[in-house]
Amino acid sequence: MNMCPERNEEEMKEKILRAIEKEYGFIPLVNEVLSERPDMFIPAANMGRSVFSGRGELEKKVRYLTALAAASALGAEHCIAVQMEQAVKAGATKNEILETMQIASVMAMTHAQSYAFRKFKERFSEEGS
């Protein structure tokens, strides 16, 4: 029976933070802030570890290129830098990085267009032209 769950959470949090720092060379702000609440940080960090390093069909490079694409499409400036570096560490080339970011940019553009052009069509469809 565990009599000190907070102590175990604190130890687990520190272990996870050390692993993150070893992997990235620093602790990203999101992890730093969220780690103030180990009850939320630990599950989130475990999910992140599972997504990037867990079982699955995608090789690590593809996982990081996918993360880079999402970060690029979302305009997540800090995540772009981190995921780009991780993709390079996993073997991605300069051209693979560029293609990934271009695909993400096109998808972000068409996402915006789909909303904007629907409103445009709603507004002007009755006029004929």
Describe this protein with a few key phrases:
AhpD-like, 2 domains, 6 helices, 78% helix
Write structural notes for this entry:
This protein has helices at 5-24, 29-34, 38-53, 60-74, 77-89, 94-124. It has six helices and no strands. It has two domains: 1-55, no CATH class; 58-129, AhpD-like, CATH 1.20.1290.10. The model has no long low-confidence stretch (mean pLDDT 93). With 129 residues, the protein is an all-alpha fold.
Topology:
Elements: H1 5-24, H2 29-34, H3 38-53, H4 60-74, H5 77-89, H6 94-124
Helix pairs in contact: 1-3, 4-5, 4-6
**Structural class by SSE content:** mainly alpha
- Cα gyration radius (Å): 20 Å
User: What is the level-2 CATH architecture name of the largest domain?
Assistant: Up-down Bundle
Q: What is the CATH class of the largest domain?
A: Mainly Alpha
- The total of beta strands comes to 0
What is the CATH superfamily classification of the largest domain? AhpD-like
Helix content: over 70%
Described by its quaternary structure, the protein is single chain
User: Into which percentage range does the β-strand content fall?
Assistant: under 5%
Helical stretch count?
6
Distance between the first and last residues' Cα: 74 Å
**Residue runs with pLDDT of under 50 for 5 or more positions:** none
CATH topology type of the largest domain: AhpD-like
Order of helices and strands: HHHHHH
